[in-house]
Amino acid sequence: MGKTAIILGASGLTGNLLLLKLIEDDRYDSVKIFTRKSLGINNPKVSEFVGDLLKLETFHQDFKADEVYCCIGTTAKQTPDRSAYHRIDYGIPVSATKLCKTNNIQTLLVISSMGANSNSKIFYSRTKGEMEHAVLKENVPNTYILRPSFIGGKRKTKRFGEGAGIVFAKLIQPLMVGGLKKYRMIDAEKIAQAMIYLANTKPDVQVIESNQIEIFGSFEHQDSGTN
Predict the structure, then answer these.
(1) Secondary structure (H, E, C), 117-184
(2) Can you tell me whether residue 46 is helix, strand or coil?
(3) Which CA distances in Å does 215 have to 68, 80, 91, 97?
(4) What is the DSSP string of 64-96?
(5) DSSP notation for 208-221
(6) Which of 9, 103, 151, 161 has its CA at 20 to 30 Å from residue 67's CA atom?
(7) Per-residue pLDDT of the chain (227 residues; tens, 9 = 90+)
(8) What is the reported pLDDT for 179?
(9) Which element (helix H / strand E) includes 107?
């Protein structure tokens, strides 16, 4: 019998790529999407649960799976109110982690961000760091926190300055060697591949920096045979 996966953030760039990969992966029989509005996915593997993710605990009865993939994240432009931003980027991943504990889900993968630090003076980095600390504190057995650098890929909605940022990131890629490798732009597809690889191999690591995500993402592409 195949596995069941839960995705939070399936409407985003990485989450959507992850969804498509899990649909094609024969190790999975079912993919549950928890979302604030329907994505209109018509596939026998996929089940949608629509509601308020800020009240994730209301999904308690349906929040059951082998693995949880949390790809939730917003931006200062999308959510300028800091209180609302904190409820999303901190609150949703932490609520998901607590539901993993309650429902005995053993594997949890969370996308954070490079530079996450609970002691940072930068609100964004501090929020991510506080989220990581709270997630790890719950001690879900197989917890993996991914810290990608600038994420590349074709988004449905363009963000301010994104085009120029991607061009600049590509130009300086060859110069980023040694300790600078973790600052290289990483493709969203590699992140999705890495998450599936980590969930299925369970290496002895919890926090994965961007250059390590790139490596794990290459392994997934080679080993699983999924697209």
Answers:
(1) CCCCCCHHHHHHHHHHHHHHHCCCCEEEEEECCCEECCCCCCCCCHHHHHHHHHHHHHHCCHHHHHHC
(2) strand
(3) 21, 34, 29, 26
(4) --SEEEE-----TTT--SHHHHHIIIIIHHHHH
(5) EEHHHHHHHHHHHH
(6) 151
(7) 899 999 999 999 999 999 999 999 999 999 999 999 999 999 999 999 999 999 999 999 999 999 999 999 888 788 888 999 999 999 999 999 999 999 999 999 999 999 999 999 999 999 999 999 999 999 999 999 999 998 987 655 554 444 545 554 555 555 555 555 656 789 999 999 999 999 999 999 999 999 999 999 998 544 444 43
(8) 57
(9) strand 107-111
Single-letter amino acid code for the residue at 133:
H
User: Which residues are bridge partners to 111 per DSSP?
Assistant: 146
Structure tokens at 208: 């994965």
Distance CA 183, CA 28 (A): 33
Q: What residue segments make up the domains of the chain, in order of their start?
A: 3-156+186-224
Cα gap 211→163, rounded to integer Å = 22
**Element containing residue 109 per DSSP (H, E):** strand 107-111
Alpha-carbon distance of 21 to 10, in angstroms, equals 12
Sheet of strand 28-35: strand arrangement: 46-50, 28-35, 3-8, 67-70, 107-111, 142-147, 207-209
CATH number of 3-156+186-224: 3.40.50.720
The separation between CA 119 and the C-alpha centre of its own chain, rounded to angstroms, equals: 22
